[in-house]
Amino acid sequence: MKKITGAQAFIEALRCEGVTSAFGYPGGAVLDIFDALMDARDIQFILTRHEQGAVHAADGYARASGRVGVCLVTSGPGATNTVTGIATAYMDSIPIVVFTGQVPTHLIGNDAFQEADIVGITRPCTKHNYLVKDVCDLGRVIKEAFYIARTGRPGPVLVDLPKNVMNSTVNFKYPDSVKLDSYCPTYKGHPGQIRRIIGLILKSRRPVIYAGGGVTLADASKELGEFARRLQIPVTTTLMGMGAFPSGDPLSLGMLGMHGTYAANMAVTNSDCLIAIGARFDDRVTGKVDEFAPKAKIIHIDIDPTSISKNVKVDLPVVGDCRLVLRGMLAELDGKDAELAEMLIQSEPWRSEIDVWKKQQPLKYCKSDIIKPQYVIEMIDEIAPDDTIITTEVGQNQMWTAQFYKFKEPRLFLTSGGLGTMGYGFPAAIGAQVAFPNRTVIDIAGDGSIQMNIQELATAVQYNLPVKVMILNNGYLGMVRQWQSLFYKKRYSHTSMAVSPDFVKLAEAYGAKGLRVTRPEDVKGAIQEALRIPGPVFADFVVDPEEDVYPMVPAGAPINNMLLV
Amino acid sequence: MRHAISVYVDNQAGVLSRVVGLFSGRGFNIESLSVAPTLDPSKSLMVITTSGNEQVLEQIKKQLNKLINVIKVVDCTDKDYVEREMILVKVKAEKETRAEVLRIADIFRAKVIDVSPKSYTLSLTGDKSKLEGFIEILTPIGILDFVRTGTVVMEREMQGRRKLA
Ligand SMILES: Cc1ncc(C[n+]2csc(CCOP(=O)(O)OP(=O)(O)O)c2C)c(N)n1
Ligand SMILES: [Mg+2]
Questions:
Q1: pLDDT averaged over consecutive 10-residue blocks of chain B (165 residues)?
Q2: Element (H, E) at A430
Q3: CATH fourth-level superfamily of A3-171
Q4: Is position A114 annotated as part of the catalytic site?
Q5: Which residue does chain A place closest to B57, by CA atoms?
Q6: Among residues 18-37 of chain B, which lie with CB inside 8 Å of chain A?
Q7: A51 an active-site residue?
Q8: Top-level CATH class of A191-360?
Q9: What residue stretches are annotated with the Thiamine pyrophosphate enzyme N-terminal TPP-binding domain (chain A) (predicted)?
Q10: What is the pTM of this model?
């Protein structure tokens, strides 16, 4: 074992974790690490233009690939700039490890230059965090950080690295295993509960599956599909669960909740057995909690015990990994052919009822001679290849994408669900493009949100990441304007984006391509052209400024109380 | 309902702040808190008394368990347990009341730990209700200074059989 510096040990640790890409931004406290990074040719480092962009990019990389995203920034302002990105990943349970520089240990607490207590600041928005005070702990801490980030309910972990720790020397050996007595997630569901779940489902007549992001995180969509089809149970997904069950499937109800489909919300409200899988009963899903699925026995499968009976009282919980529990449920069906056949017959009227709801109130919008944002999304869906990765910003653009883009597979839709972070989509798309250089990656953006991390266009150009940004330019902070329109007597207080840059010229200024589209008949051609251009593109779609997202459940109302088009 | 929860944690910097931050961040209430290392110095035991309905208590316990540095969570309220806290109280003790203060101390089996011409400082250990009774009796005489620890609890060895408190 030869002596190396903490900075070199850090690079070695990343290698041992199989890290091939990282995102970040340098500064005084991490000079030693960046110096070591220069010799690490096997680790592709992407210099973003803002630390928030680096964290979202690491997050997008993780969501698209299923691997842990890595981010490295300096102390103080570099560290505080990561907070929104970390909170975004935390709310959506995304495995990332964020390394922050820190002032030397003897200066900690002295209000030293560029000192911030980032461990204190991020304690409530990380799954766990560390301050490494001794270089001898470095290997163990990094090993634990990656392990904690990706296991159990995944999440962000932050590791704070004081400068003197990184330039002191150590006999380095990366540990082979982690020893964490107090952390042991439950993967295997309780067999007795699984048996009871199947018993309950086989007796149900109006079952619905409510699938969330946990299905994607557990890579359980194959099992989910098999289970739903075998029992012919309709499936609705949350925003985070989009793609976990294919939108085009006859059993698919689309999204539920505030901007969910009529069929999904009616089905949940009338169900006698709601099977929640990897979902957490968020208020945007449940609406008025007391009237959520009022007739249903509720089954809840989740790896995180704190999610169970947090917002809604559950009748049959099982703590475990969604994939393993679904496999257990499938196995439990063996030898129950007669009961299954009976259930399939008895639940037939339910499926017909749902089909009527689907036909009565499909997702729709009125065509006009101004470009409708929904139309742009339908055309992107039509033109983009099947394995295209779509990210969104936050607001109407995000909801329309969830409604009108037909996601066929998991990990193709990256969006900030829990925190609702404007400015997420573009850097996340950059991260996804790094993970999959040969696939099409599109950020469906709003004119407001795109301006929150627009500086990352330089990153896309520098690393030749051909991300396509489709801006649904309505000249408004559209989602906020929609609420003002519906609930504040159209008093549009500070929601007009009266001044935005000329996105075409801006793209050109950065060395990218810009397109502007003002007529519905040009939409298709513009999307095709954007996809044909080899580098990053900003396509500015000038859309109907007053278009709203429907259906809509007013905040706090029961979800069958929908405003329709 | 009041619950006493024993939380075994790693004895490390920042762990107290994780636990306390969890309570404040999620709007749970802490009535009292006591923390000290266990016989194994790498671990600490926190005793938290809190209150809330069944659902809140369930969340508190699950959320505590979810913290990486939390090793074990025991809700003593589910069990038979003994409970103690301690107070130090400086009571006005001038001519007329000097004897009475000592009499009250005696009745409650409190100890006199400091004396001055105008005051006695008493220490008393007991459960919450005993201490509150003591304070109530002393208040009219005049409490000059007062400090109280958090509650500590321990399971009874013989569960299900009430013994001398
Ligand atoms: C960082 C941040 N600030 C504020 C909000 C509140 N917010 C939610 S949607 C929205 C409007 C977004 O406008 P735009 O990006 O143009 O999207 P549109 O709704 O018009 O499609 C705002 C301000 C937010 N979600 N995130
Ligand atoms: Mg807008």
A1: 94 96 96 96 97 94 97 92 96 93 96 96 96 96 96 88 56
A2: helix A425-435
A3: Thiamin diphosphate (ThDP)-binding fold, Pyr/PP domains (3.40.50.970)
A4: yes
A5: A310
A6: 18, 21-22, 25
A7: yes
A8: alpha beta
A9: 5-119
A10: 0.96
For A467-507, the pLDDT digits (tens) are 999 999 999 999 999 999 999 999 999 999 999 999 999 99
Question: Distances from the Cα of B138 to the Cαs of A86, B92, B117, B129, B135, in angstroms?
Answer: 53, 9, 18, 14, 5
Residue A455 falls in the annotated catalytic set: no
Looking at domain B2-78, what is its CATH homologous superfamily? ACT domain (3.30.70.260)
User: Which residue reads 């407001």 in tokens?
Assistant: A448
CA–CA distances in Å: residue A411 to residues A62, A218, A253, B41, B55: 9, 11, 19, 46, 34
Q: Give yes or no for B12 touching A (CB within 8 A).
A: no
Q: Which residues in chain A touch residue B68, judged by CB atoms under 8 angstroms apart? A: 127-128, 148, 180, 182-183
Q: Which fold has domain A373-542?
A: Rossmann fold (3.40.50)
Q: Are strands A316-319 and A389-392 parallel, antiparallel or unpaired?
A: unpaired
A300 in reach of chain B (CB within 8 A): no
Tell me the chain B residues in contact with residue A119 when contact means C-beta distances shorter than 8 Å: 14
Residues within 6 Å of ligand 1 by CB: A 393-397, 420-422, 446-449, 472, 474, 476-480
Four-CA torsion A91, A97, A98, A99, nearest 10 degrees: 160
User: Measuring CA to CA, which residue among A306, A303, A310 is closest to residue A289?
Assistant: A310
Q: Tell me the one-letter amino acid at B139.
A: T
CA B16 to chain A, closest CA, distance in angstroms equals: 12
B57 touching A, CB under 8 A?
no
Whether residue A128 has pLDDT greater than 60: yes
The neighbour count for residue A412, using CB atoms within 10 Å, is 23
How is domain B82-155 classified at the architecture level of CATH? 2-Layer Sandwich (3.30)
A127 included as an active-site residue: no
